[in-house]
Amino acid sequence: MSTLELENISKSFGEKNILDHLDLRVNDGEFVSLLGPSGSGKSTIFHMIGGLYQADHGTILLDNEAINGKKGSISYMPQTPSLFPWRTVLENVVLSVELHQKPDKQKALEMLERAGLKDYANAYPHELSGGMRQRVAFVRSLLSPQSFICLDEPFSALDEFTRLEMQKWLLTIWEQERPSVLFVTHHIEEAIFLSDRVLVLGSKPANVIKEFTIDFKRPRNEELTLTQEFLEKKKEIYQTLRGVLDD
Amino acid sequence: MFRKSFLPVSVIVSILIIWELSSRILAIPTWILPAPTVIMQEAINGWSNYQHHIFSTVFLTVSGFAIGVSVGLLIAVMLHLLPKIREALYPLLIMSQNIPIIVLAPLLVIWFGFGITPKLLIITLVCFFPVAVSTIDGLRHTNPELIHYMKMAGATKKQIFTKLELPHAVPQMFSGLKISATYSVMGAVISEWLGANKGIGVYMTLASSSFRTDRVFVAILFIMILCLIFFTIIIAMEKIILKWHPGKEEQ
Ligand SMILES: Nc1ncnc2c1ncn2[C@@H]1O[C@H](COP(=O)(O)OP(=O)(O)O)[C@@H](O)[C@H]1O
Ligand SMILES: [Mg+2]
Questions:
Q1: Which of A203, A143, A134 minimizes the C-alpha distance to A164?
Q2: Could you tell me what percentage of chain A is helix, strand and coil, using 3-state DSSP and rounding each to the nearest 5?
Q3: What is the pLDDT of residue B1?
Q4: Closest Cα partner for A80 from A9, A190, A157, A4?
Q5: Residue A1 to residue B46: CA distance in whole angstroms
Q6: pLDDT attached to residue A39
Q7: Ligand 1 pocket check: which of A15, A43, A79 to mutate, most ligand atoms within 8 Å of Cβ?
Q8: Which parts of chain A fold into alpha helices (H)?
Q9: How far apart are the first and last CA of chain B?
Q10: H helices, E strands: number in chain B
Q11: Per-residue pLDDT for B87 more than 90?
């Protein structure tokens, strides 16, 4: 079981007020997306959850325990794959475990197999394609001993085709494991396709201005993105975001 | 491999042929410039006379190189982990390289005598610097994205150093090692000039004072061969250790 709750979080860098009394909650086994324009402070939220920055105000609760300023409480996947070039794929995916306990190579190999990366276990990152590197990074975060996963725009550097492949792949893996996920993106369709809930972030200073519940049944597949209901959700969210940008 | 070495080899062969022909046609006296064949003859016939000099130099070079590299790495790690000390000592480190070794050498002899200590010190002085500077650079320029990931994953300072910064600095460290390897042979020969009873440097001094120019060239030949061998060993080690490294075309 794993839940995350941000209560009344504020953060400013010098004069710049980035987050203002932000509240959000991710329930156990829930996939929640944070949708907001670039520079609205999405990564900053993660950095505070990860303990790199202290919030000026408010509490961060993981499983109802305050983790303000505590490093390494969540499993994290950054925007770039951030793999270590001198480690093989297998050695890379166990890195996050290795920092806290003795890694279980067998479990890692099983996970790689499920991710379709079995044949690449002994390859080095520079031998993989961009999409494969992201998959390795995701397997690494799944293997982390921390059960709450934070993904920071993991697919934004990929081309449109690879991006769609990766979204479908992520869904299959996620639907098997059902970890609690907080997913950051600035891509509306991606947010709807993957999430149980989408939180739209207003900017300067950022705050959750609207929440959308996405109750399309799972497992989901690509056709969903072409249905009327999907397009309506997209339109609704788009208009909310437009409002943010026009302010 | 063959194609790559073809050009330099043919240049060397041409130079040797021109050298050989001109010494014969112009009848240059052997004590001024011996022909390559004369040098080769001395290299082959004199082997039993000079081989102990070579082994002595090899021993000196390897020991000096090992000490110099260890000191260099130690300094690099220390200065990296203690930024305050780096600020204070880095300029001093650079300055230590502005003093020509030839000037420093007699001082070292005065302080430490003619034994092996001043010789090892000289080699250490020329060897530690390239390794130290390149390793410090490698440590400092660790990919910030990777450091960021490690911090988010809850890595301790020690884990960031051993699992990230240190392996990250290895390719840089090797570029320093290659320079140090060739410097170490030079350092050994210079240190032998100061006073020793064995070594290529001694053999060279004896040869030049008795106008055996062919032997001076034999000494030069062996210095070059030693440099090449050390360099090749370092490159081979680099290939094995950096097998993960993407090729140049991808960098
Ligand atoms: N360490 C920092 N110091 C000062 N300003 C920062 C720092 N980190 C982020 N910011 C500022 O905070 C704002 C939000 O950044 P970020 O959280 O990266 O946005 P997003 O991830 O939504 O694109 C930006 O204007 C950025 O310049
Ligand atoms: Mg960001």
A1: A134
A2: 40, 25, 35
A3: 60
A4: A157
A5: 82
A6: 86
A7: A43
A8: 42-49, 89-93, 95-98, 105-114, 130-143, 160-177, 188-194, 228-246
A9: 21
A10: 11, 0
A11: no
Reading phi first (left if > 0) and then psi (alpha if -120 to 50, else beta), residue A130 is in alpha
DSSP string covering B128-151, please? HHHHHHHHHHHHHT--HHHHHHHH
Residue B249: per-residue pLDDT? 41
In this structure, the number of other CB atoms found within 10 A of the CB of residue A218 comes to 13
The full set of domain ranges for chain A reads: 4-74+147-246, 85-145
Pocket of ligand 1 contains residue A203 by CB under 6 Å? no
Q: Which of B141, B148, B149, B161 to mutate to test the interface with A (most CBs of A within 10 A)?
A: B149
What does pTM read for this prediction?
Answer: 0.86
Q: In this predicted model, what pLDDT tens digit does every residue of A173-188 receive, in sequence order? A: 898 889 999 999 989 9
Q: Does B146 touch chain A (CB under 8 A)?
A: yes
Residues of A in contact with B246 (CB under 8 A): 85, 124, 126
Say how far residue A166 (Cα) sits from the centre of its chain: 13
Predicted ipTM of the assembly: 0.90
Domain A4-74+147-246 has CATH 3.30.420.40: no
Asked if A78 and B167 come within 8 Å (Cβ–Cβ), the reply is no
Instruction: Please tell me if residue A122 touches chain B, with a CB cutoff of 8 Å.
Output: no
B141 min Cα distance to partner chain A (Å): 14
| Beta-carbon contacts of residue A58 (< 8 Å; ≥ 6 apart) | A6, A7, A8, A9, A10, A21, A22
C-alpha angle B154/B159/B162, rounded to 5°? 155
Sequence spans of domains, chain B: 1-33, 45-250
- Domain B45-250 has what CATH class? mainly alpha
